[in-house]
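DM from R.C. (forwarded with permission)

"hey, sorry to bug you on a friday — could you get me a structure for this? deadline for the figure draft is monday and I only need the backbone to look sensible"
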Amino acid sequence: MNSQLRVKICCIQSIAEAELAIACGADALGLVSEMPSGPGVISEARIAEIAAQVPAGIATFLLTSKKSVEDILLQHRRCRTTTIQICDSLQPGDHATLKRALPEIEIVQAIHVNNESALHKARALAPHVEALLLDSGEPDARMKTLGGTGRTHNWLISARICRKIDKPVYLAGGLNPQNIGEAVETVQPFGVDVCSGVRRNGQLDQSLLKAFFQNLPGK
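My reply, with the result:
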């Protein structure tokens, strides 16, 4: 198991939440731009404001649902994060185009783990990105859900992906202080990503954050 397990706290809403997450041990912060559904969306202006205040060494992820390279580039120019998390699907070759345009920015692709096809998608996309993020969601539904479901998925499939892929893999989807130990032991990811599991009444909760980190193997 990775002894330096990374922790990304997602759906950050404010500078105060960013400071709380970092104080509790976060290695990365997720900043959610416009999505077809789900929690945590904030304006691009606020994303830029938060990202500008995060100290060096803490990654800032722009979560985007945009599907064209041009739109993603324009959005990143406005938000200025260290990482772009692509939550939907791009066309073949788009990841390489995006990387050529932003060589200093890490590109992370979300894979929605609904069945065995997730393994094939992960294998196909891994060579073109810095990391993958395995999440719960329904990207092909009439009303897309691209994350933030609060639901777990089949961790055995995620564990197979981690074993087969030679890139860092984050595990997301329904993680909380009660299940994080089992999740990490089962999947053995590079990092974990949590949103609703450390919130109470919509607010980032210090006691839940502390419990999450205390129950996290290898942190």
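R.C.: lifesaver. The chain has one domain: 6-214.
me: no worries. The chain has a mean pLDDT of 92.
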